[in-house]
Specification:
This protein has 134 residues and is mostly beta strands. Helices cover 13% and strands 34% of the residues. It has a 5-stranded antiparallel sheet with strand order 3-2-1-4-7. Strands 5-6 form a two-stranded antiparallel ribbon.
Length: 134
């Protein structure tokens, strides 16, 4: 919560560059807080052979928000069986996205050394599903 207080008190200087040193667009704290990031628990995971890139279909419990589906390119480090029961962090307020015959409802977050080398982000302690990330 401390970081939230700091970020909400920050003002955007008039001379804010359009991009960062890494070439990504500069955003404001309000832009960041528009994303609804939540903790969920993977209920089921199965291979997604119809996807263009190797992926796994997930069903994730977000508590009061319900169960949502996601397609995630996690095959470099995880098997479907290893994912069941894991806590994950996901953006839950993006619009659904059609991926082949599957509708992905949330974006599961991970650290990406390369586009196919994804390591899941997760809380380092057990927290209730649906907990907001801030």
């Amino acid at each position: 919560m401390y970081a939230c207080r700091i970020l909400t008190r920050m003002s955007t200087p008039a001379s804010t560059p359009a991009t960062t040193q890494t070439g990504t667009p500069t955003i404001t704290p309000d832009d960041f807080f528009a994303a609804d990031l939540r903790v969920g628990r993977v209920l089921s995971a199965e291979p997604f052979p119809e996807a263009r890139k190797p992926a796994i279909k997930l069903r994730i419990d977000f508590g009061e928000l319900g169960v949502r589906r996601s397609s995630a390119q996690l095959t470099a480090h995880y098997t479907p069986d290893e994912l069941v029961g894991r806590l994950v962090i996901a953006v839950v307020n993006f619009p659904p996205r059609q991926i082949g015959p599957f509708v992905s409802e949330v974006l599961v977050l991970g650290a990406c050394a390369t586009p196919s080398d994804v390591v899941l982000l997760a809380p380092d302690m057990d927290v209730p599903v649906g907990t907001r990330i801030s």
